[in-house]
Amino acid sequence: MMPAVLTRPLLALCCGLTTVAGQAPTTLEVVHGDFGFAVTPSGLRYKVVGVPAATHVAIVAAVRVGGWHDPVGQTGLTHLLNTQVTLTQAARPEPERWSVRTTGPATVLAVTCPNAAVETRLRELGRFLAGELPFDADLVARAKAQVLMLADDYLHLVPGPLLFETARRHVLAGTPAGKQMFGVPSEMKAIEPAQLRAWFGTCMRPEHTTVVVMGGVEPGPAGDVCRQVFAAAGERTKAAATTVHDGAGEVVLDRQHARVAAPFVTVAIKAPPLDDPRWLPFVIAMGVVNVRCHRTFGSYRGREAEAMFPFFWFDYRHGDAFALINRRGASGDDGESPRDLEAVRGELRALIKRLRTVAPEMTEVREAAFEAASTLMLPPYEGQLEAMAQHPGLLLPRAELLAMADVLGFRPSLQYDIGKVPIGDVHRALALALADANLVWLSLVPKE
């Protein structure tokens, strides 16, 4: 018999913890307010998380400027700037490069380094946030060529991103997230170096940044370095304002595509806002959908992975307020009989009908709760600390989760609230999320 709620012992089971009845897990760090971030005189927010026995440190800086903030007529400005930043790292050995990624709410800069190099890397970040970035004509031209080539690939070559961004523009129209996040080619071509420089100087600043240092360092001394490096950096600027516009032209939900050999079908699902009581049940419900998609579809048809077309996608950790279910038809060159568009849509309709009408199994709910709980368990719990000490590659994703939680305003209690969500709320979230009125169907078919 299914229990009435996801109890704390179940949450402990999902997260690999053990508890005594009636007591909270002793290994969890209960942080009130804002996960315990400190603030330097320059306005930069930081947190150091020591990982005993770790040999490396991840440094993540989330700067509160991203695709949500691109000015009208300059869709892709932040993406272009961040591509330029990436190009400045090209001459360095790969392990020493800062990665740079543009999300809706933030630009994320990240690096993993040996413990002894943490101060050096923090000082590099300090110089960057103080304005150190070249803007010579050749560098800007190369960055522009790269983002325009990527946009062309996404619009004409790789099916997944085209469906993804079309779904975004339709489902989130009228919001800051309703833009074509990789940019609008005609608008990016017109961006001048002086506009890039001004955007960098205004937005890439300490007062708009959250930094997480996670790894084999002592929080006290590493915190002292953060306070020294980011003590002051000139006059503060206003935070970039979010903007609402879409210069990418008409939203076409069903279209022909010259590079696909079979139908590609996407179902987009709009999520409740983060501050809505339905949000957390929705997150768990989408975890159930993810489990069911993989169990139902089993294996990819053809080259779905290369097409950037996963069975399911929902990245609430970076502020995206929609989920996608994806399925490709068979093309005849992958050992299966050809499938027409309606056959693929029928597969998805059958899956959605089962999700609406058949209560998820407890194993599915546990798997979904595990994923959400392990994601929202911030800062990391003891078991995760041990894993990160043994596997340095786990440090950076966890540090980024914590930085983005601060940017997005996740409340620390989410990690505990997930254990209080009634199963009935998960069932209702599934029914509401998958109601016809909340679904948007998109497709690509081979060009005739």
What does the radius of gyration come to?
A: 23 Å
Number of strands: 11
Q: Strand order, main sheet: write it out.
A: 1-2-6-3-5-4
Strand percentage: 5-15%
Distance between the termini: 53 Å
Global mean pLDDT: 88
Task: Characterize the biggest β-sheet.
Answer: 6 strands, mixed
Q: Would you list the SSEs in sequence order as H and E?
A: HEEEHEEHHHHHEHEEHEEHHHHHHE
**Unreliable residue runs:** 1-32
| Helix-strand category | alpha+beta
> What sort of overall outline do the alpha carbons produce when their principal axes are compared?
globular
Helix content: 40-55%
Helix segment count? 15
Q: What this model shows, in words?
A:
The chain is of the alpha+beta class. The protein contains 15 helices and 11 strands. The longest helix has 20 residues.
Key attributes of the depicted protein:
448 residues; disordered N terminus; single chain; alpha+beta; 11 strands; five-stranded mixed beta sheet
Secondary-structure blueprint of this entry?
Blueprint (H helix, E strand, L loop, with lengths): L7 H8 L22 E2 L5 E6 L5 E8 L13 H11 L11 E4 L4 E8 L3 H12 L7 H20 L2 H13 L13 H5 L3 H11 L5 E7 L3 H11 L24 E4 L6 E7 L8 H19 L14 E2 L8 E7 L12 H17 L4 H15 L5 H9 L4 H14 L5 H4 L5 H11 L5 E8 L2
Parallel strand pairs: 2-6, 7-11
Antiparallel strand pairs: 1-2, 3-5, 3-6, 4-5, 8-10, 8-11, 9-10
What does this entry show, briefly?
This protein has 448 residues and is of the alpha+beta class. It has 15 helices and eleven strands.
